[in-house]
Amino acid sequence: MTSIRDWSTLSPDQSQAMKTAATRLARDFDGVFGQGTIERFLHSSYDQFASKATVTRFLPLMAERFAKQRLQALAKVEGLHDDGKPTVLFLCVHNAGRSQMAMGFFTQLAGEAAVAWSGGSEPESEINPAAVEAMRERGIDISAEYPKPWTDEVVRAADVVISMGCGDACPIFPGKRYEEWVLDDPAGLDVTGVRPVRDEIERRVRLLLAELKVPVG
After folding, report:
1. 103 has which bridge partners?
2. Which residues are part of the catalytic machinery?
3. Which of 43, 79, 89, 93 has its CB surrounded by the most CB atoms within 10 Å?
4. What global pTM score does this model have?
5. Hey, what domains does the chain have and what are their CATH numbers?
6. Is the model's pLDDT at 78 over the cut of 50?
């Protein structure tokens, strides 16, 4: 595996962006993880997106954000850091519609009281624009999100795993709370078609927050 310090296949700007990302992550996880672990997660996170990316300028930022989430999850799994907040993982096939809307509602309603992540078994290259617009109608902006895969440490760190149509591809770890939400796939639908799915997701997210005893802001 190529070292993070030798990004010979990247442009100078991207190489510098990755080095800056590694520095920020090292600061964020100072005393928790060493530089080698941070670089390994950043490198593998970059690789997750590089093969599908149509626009490469944002790859370093996406890799940094994903690596940070994965490192936070690993710290919780290994007992190195746990803020005690309930963590919910929303999974679907493409991580472009249903799971992104669920994460958007959960994050908006729970605020700082709980954590939401999302992932897909076959991530798309971008968020469904109809889902973005449908959520914007509710005052929630998910346009800055991006489809991403799930990883073992993220699933293991979640307290609740919500699956939306990923079937047998959904990872199973003993001792976790799993739920299957049967929802129409918004892929290919216009905003009018997405709205009923969006509203049902909001209803279920509110019920979940009540079950987790998370106050809704």
Report:
1. none
2. 92, 166, 170
3. 89
4. 0.90
5. 12-77 (1.10.8.1060), 87-211 (3.40.50.2300)
6. yes
